[in-house]
Design goal:
α5 packs parallel to α7. The chain has one domain: NAD(P)-binding Rossmann-like Domain (Rossmann fold, 3-Layer(aba) Sandwich), CATH 3.40.50.720. The protein has a seven-stranded parallel beta sheet with strand order 3-2-1-4-5-6-7, sandwiched between helices. The chain is an alpha/beta fold. It is globular, with a radius of gyration of 19 Å. α2 links the parallel β1 and β2. The protein has eleven helices and seven strands. Bound molecules: 2-acetamido-2-deoxy-beta-D-glucopyranose (NAG) (4 copies). One 2-acetamido-2-deoxy-beta-D-glucopyranose (NAG) binds next to loops. One 2-acetamido-2-deoxy-beta-D-glucopyranose (NAG) binds next to α2.
């Protein structure tokens, strides 16, 4: 009984303070809502204060959703290209919620264009948001994560970025975006080592299949229709963020794989279109990863049939 009580506390984000960038919609918002369901405190740091002409959701609508889901919300206008804005947002979070336990670096700019088609403006945007922004937000959150570690509050950094793979075909069509995204993963590699003795975990999470978000629709999806909803990413993120930060760090996690490794066998409900099969595999997911997911799936169905 007592053991179960502690287990459930450890596996919840109740009372944890999350600073999430790009949380006004899509995957960032889904992660915020999952934490809110546990009773988490969420700083929603994003650029969108007033409605975007093409994309739904602002920090205020996201905050309302977080509160409805059972969490505390702090909407913050924060352009992560601006160091002063980041410092102010972090300070406001600490003043409001008493600290920071988790940083989720989700904000991301995307332009799937080749070198000639990528303007300097687009290149700078991807560099400034994906790699420089991730670094800058984390840099200013670190003192608070160290404090969280001292208090044994299980501090985590989670970057929404792909497993490190250096195959040229992942670069060919959009080198600049690929480098900006892999840069986020390189930070995971470095930070896991840098902060290990402080008990702070740094991990990366990436989807096996294409996730359908408003941003994806806006850039014109040539990815086909066999996509999943952001819910699979938030379930996987929740699993990572409730793991012991002293033990689980430096991992490049794929959503379906970690969920299967933890015993989940049902994935149909994540399909954007009910009944869709043969999900479209996402960028940067090597064949070995796809095969591992299949092996885990088959191992499970073998286990099931041997029980019959
Ligand atoms: C690169 O572009 C080509 C042509 O559009 C396409 O067939 C191929 O799948 C793309 N490769 C990746 C890894 O996106
Ligand atoms: C990747 O990171 C390095 C080091 O921070 C930086 O110099 C480089 O401009 C980044 N590249 C992109 C495309 O983000
Ligand atoms: C996706 O579905 C829409 C509507 O059913 C269809 O018009 C479109 O061709 C499909 N796209 C792909 C790439 O299969
Ligand atoms: C608002 C925002 O930038 N959301 C991003 C969250 O992360 C995913 C995966 O990197 C992006 O596709 C979203 O655009």
């Amino acid at each position: 009984m007592i053991f179960l009580y502690f287990l459930s506390v450890a596996m919840s984000l109740k009372g944890k303070v999350l600073f999430i960038t790009g949380a006004s919609r899509g995957i960032g918002l889904a992660i915020a809502l999952r934490a809110a369901k546990d009773g988490g405190y969420i700083a929603i740091a994003a650029k969108t204060d007033t409605p975007h002409p093409k994309l739904p959701g602002t920090i205020h609508t996201a905050a309302d959703e977080v509160r409805r889901a059972g969490g505390k919300a702090l909407p913050l206008v924060c352009d992560i290209r601006n160091e002063e804005a980041i410092k102010a947002a972090i300070q406001k979070t600490v003043d409001t919620f008493g600290g920071i336990d988790i940083v989720v670096n989700n904000a991301s700019a995307i332009s799937l264009t080749d070198t000639q088609e990528t303007s300097l403006k687009k290149f700078n945007l991807m560099f400034e948001i994906n790699s420089r922004g991730t670094w800058l937000v984390t840099k200013h959150a670190i003192p608070h994560l160290i404090e969280s570690g001292r208090k044994n509050r299980n501090p985590h950094i989670l970057n929404l970025s792909p497993p490190l793979t250096l195959k040229e075909h992942w670069f060919k069509n959009h080198t600049a975006y690929s480098i900006a995204k892999f840069n986020m993963s390189l930070f995971v590699l470095g930070w896991a080592a840098e902060f290990r003795d402080k008990g702070i975990a740094a991990n990366a999470l990436w989807p096996l299949t294409v996730i359908e978000t408003a941003a994806l629709k806006a850039i014109g999806s040539h990815f086909g229709n066999n996509t999943r909803t952001p819910e699979i990413m938030c379930d996987a993120a929740h699993l990572i963020l409730t793991k012991n930060s002293k033990e689980f760090s430096g991992n490049f996690v794929i959503d379906e794989i970690i969920l299967r490794e933890h015993g989940q066998t049902e994935f149909d409900h994540y399909a954007t279109r009910p009944g869709a099969k043969d999900m479209t595999i996402d960028l940067y997911v090597d064949d070995e990863i796809v095969n591992l997911a299949k092996t885990l799936q088959e191992a499970k169905s073998r286990k099931k049939s041997s029980k019959l």
